[in-house]
């Protein structure tokens, strides 16, 4: 792994070494230098570097909560990854079973049997994906060995303000010291911080589809931060695998199911990211809907443009901002993004359209809620954390039809 280790010591360009399939694109790139780790985590990072320098085999991965949809997607994506090997999988209610008995589509994968979290042995683990429900991850992460790299797919470490977490999730934050260490992992926006992190809070699906188009436009002062209206629609897998009456076929099929109106738990996460970009408090109008499809997500965003700005300005800025990115794609003008064109992939497709109302624009952003909205972005983040090219294991053509 000497070549991987060397990657951590160099600066990362705006493309972060993407486009590995086609070679490096000729373009002007801005170099962003990896920020020094906090003194508090220096010892942990040193331990990790020593382990990595000594290793010539694959990194050993633990998947906590492997019996859920995000856990199964992690396993599917890791099946073709050249640098990772799953050595631990937990699922309390499925403990003792094989992954093939829980997810028959994974029956050919040679993987360890599922165990309960309390019985998990982390001696042979270098990094962990936490795919557990919110409210349970904080205590578990607190008990993990300090040398492990962790990507948490729950909401437990996404909100910087622990008081806000308690307000929206109805319980006190159980790991406030760890929260100070956690890095919010919107990959294309926070690469340097992610690369030097030990604990990354993977973004939610709705916030990913919304922040990727809006943050660059807000930072460039091209749109107003008032009167942002967001209409988002998700496949039912976004509600998780647990048996719930509201998610039964007859409750969801042949209709649109609005939920969490004015109080969806992704609201503070969205507003946190947009407020940071604006350097001022941003409040949005956000309404999510479940659609009668397994996976996929579309966010239709209505914004007011800044004085003197045009939809062409917005389009060109996003084109330039993401031109070296593998996974965020601004479509050709007038092409409408569709969820069916990102199914099973880590891509986010975006486009901008002029509204009939003067000075307003319509932004459409689509992702696969289980991949770019969850497990794919988590793998992208861990690749960065482990010094591996971030596209590894993720460059696959979307499944169509």
UniProtKB/TrEMBL annotation:
The organism of origin for this protein: Handroanthus impetiginosus
Protein's GO biological process: L-arginine biosynthetic process
E.C. code: 1.2.1.38
Enzymatic class: oxidoreductase
Protein family according to the UniProt entry: Belongs to the NAGSA dehydrogenase family. Type 1 subfamily.
Protein name per UniProt: Probable N-acetyl-gamma-glutamyl-phosphate reductase, chloroplastic
Active site, per annotation: 205
Domain Semialdehyde dehydrogenase NAD-binding: 60-197
Xref: Gene3D superfamilies: Dihydrodipicolinate Reductase, domain 2, NAD(P)-binding Rossmann-like Domain
Pathway the protein takes part in: Amino-acid biosynthesis; L-arginine biosynthesis; N(2)-acetyl-L-ornithine from L-glutamate: step 3/4
Keywords assigned: Amino-acid biosynthesis, Arginine biosynthesis, NADP, Oxidoreductase
Family matches, as SMART domains: Semialdhyde_dh
Pfam family, one: Semialdhyde_dhC_1
Record bears the keyword Cell membrane: no
SUPFAM superfamilies xrefs: Glyceraldehyde-3-phosphate dehydrogenase-like, C-terminal domain, NAD(P)-binding Rossmann-fold domains
MF annotations from Gene Ontology: N-acetyl-gamma-glutamyl-phosphate reductase activity; NAD binding; NADP+ binding
Catalysed conversion reaction: N-acetyl-L-glutamate 5-semialdehyde + phosphate + NADP(+) = N-acetyl-L-glutamyl 5-phosphate + NADPH + H(+)
Oxidoreductase found in the keyword field: yes
């Amino acid at each position: 792994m000497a070549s991987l280790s060397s990657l951590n010591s160099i600066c990362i360009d705006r493309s972060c070494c993407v486009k590995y399939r086609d070679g490096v694109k000729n373009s002007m790139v801005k170099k962003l230098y990896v920020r020094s780790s906090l003194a508090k985590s220096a010892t942990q990072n040193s331990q990790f570097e020593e382990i990595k320098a000594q290793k010539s085999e694959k990194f050993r991965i633990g998947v906590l909560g492997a019996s859920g949809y995000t856990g199964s997607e992690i396993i599917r994506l890791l099946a073709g990854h050249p640098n990772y090997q799953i050595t631990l999988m937990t699922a309390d209610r499925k403990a003792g079973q094989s992954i093939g008995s829980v997810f028959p589509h994974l029956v050919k994968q040679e993987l360890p049997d599922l165990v309960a979290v309390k019985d998990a042995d982390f001696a042979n683990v270098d990094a962990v994906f936490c795919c557990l429900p919110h409210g349970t991850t904080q205590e578990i992460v607190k008990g993990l060995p300090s040398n492990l790299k962790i990507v948490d797919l729950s909401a437990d470490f996404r909100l910087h303000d622990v008081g806000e977490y308690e307000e929206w999730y109805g319980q006190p934050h159980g790991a406030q010291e760890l929260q100070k260490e956690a890095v919010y992992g919107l990959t294309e926006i926070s690469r340097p911080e992610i690369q030097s992190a030990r604990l990354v809070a993977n973004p939610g699906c709705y916030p990913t589809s919304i922040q990727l188009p809006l943050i660059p436009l807000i930072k460039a002062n091209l749109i107003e931060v008032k009167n942002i209206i967001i209409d988002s629609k998700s496949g039912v897998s976004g509600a998780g695998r647990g048996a719930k009456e509201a998610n039964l076929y007859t409750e969801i099929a042949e209709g649109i199911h609005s939920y969490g109106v004015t109080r969806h738990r992704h609201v503070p996460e969205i507003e946190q990211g947009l407020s940071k970009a604006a350097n001022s408090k941003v409040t949005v109008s956000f309404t999510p809907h479940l659609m009668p499809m397994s996976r996929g997500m579309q966010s239709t965003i209505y914004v007011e443009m800044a004085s003197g700005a045009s939809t062409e300005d917005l389009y060109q800025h996003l084109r330039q901002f993401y031109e070296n990115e593998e996974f965020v794609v601004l479509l050709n003008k007038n092409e409408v993004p569709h969820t069916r064109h990102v199914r099973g992939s880590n891509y986010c497709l975006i486009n901008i359209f002029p509204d009939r109302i003067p000075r307003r624009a319509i932004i459409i952003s689509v992702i696969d809620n289980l991949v770019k909205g969850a497990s794919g972005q988590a793998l992208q983040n861990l690749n960065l954390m482990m010094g591996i090219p971030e596209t590894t294991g993720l460059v696959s053509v979307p499944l169509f039809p």
